[in-house]
Amino acid sequence: MPARRPGSARRSLTAIAGIIATLLTMTVSLSSAASADDRRPAPHPEDHWAGSQIIKHEGGARGGTGEAPSLLASVEGVDVSSHQGNVAWSTLWNSGVRFAYVKATEGTGYKNPYFAQQYNGSYNVGMIRGSYHFALPNVSSGAAQANYFVDNGGGWSRDGKTLPGALDIEYNPYGSTCYGKSQTAMVSWLKDFVNTYRARTGRDPVIYTSTSWWKTCTGNNASFGSINPLWIPRYGSSVGELPAGWAFHTIWQYTSTGPTVGDHNLFNGAYDRLQALAYG
Known about the structure:
Keywords: Glycosidase, Hydrolase, Signal
Mean pLDDT: 83
EC number: 3.2.1.17
Strand content: 15-25%
Largest sheet: 8 strands, mixed, barrel
CATH topology of the largest domain: TIM Barrel
Helix content: 25-40%
Family: Belongs to the glycosyl hydrolase 25 family.
Protein name: Lysozyme
Enzyme class: hydrolase
């Protein structure tokens, strides 16, 4: 058996130590990448629509019979996303639906691939329509997401058929309920979004949120109620408690299992008031 050269064992140990150091570095890098991925838009934004996380976190029936509660003055509407694909708008119109909200964007990296069919199709059949943005406050600033929204379908025009854009802010589908933000930081993010949207379009955006989430993640902040119209989800016989600052709701998402496609909503007022909201 040949004699081992002096220092060969030392070189072997050095090589092994180098391999271990490389593996540790790769582990740290992968861990950092995973943390970064947690802040990116998740791989299935088509599964997130207005109310999808409300149902998951707050429970309650997904609409019961799907029939609209009886109100003296109300207008029937729907909201849709890529989850519905191509929508038969004439069928909805014939069922009495007169307005629609369409998901346009999520975070700063997702655009609804069915947006044109849904947004233009609802308009062409005669509906008053608007678009909404699914917020991811941990991904980018409120201003960045408002700009992304406006640039990708969230604009507004005074044509009497376009509603102001809506901000869908609800439970985080990808992680912590409040997106890792304190109540103060969340309020700041929201103000950043609504102020930027107003600067870009001249309109105050509608805010879609549940009372429970709003209390948890903003501390039930009351500073938006006198400015931003409220779109509230509650799948029951009444709209229930409103978040602080809002004396009334503008739109009520009352079911997600209506007799026709999409979530169903009621506008809190007569048709001419819906037109007034569109005109601004």
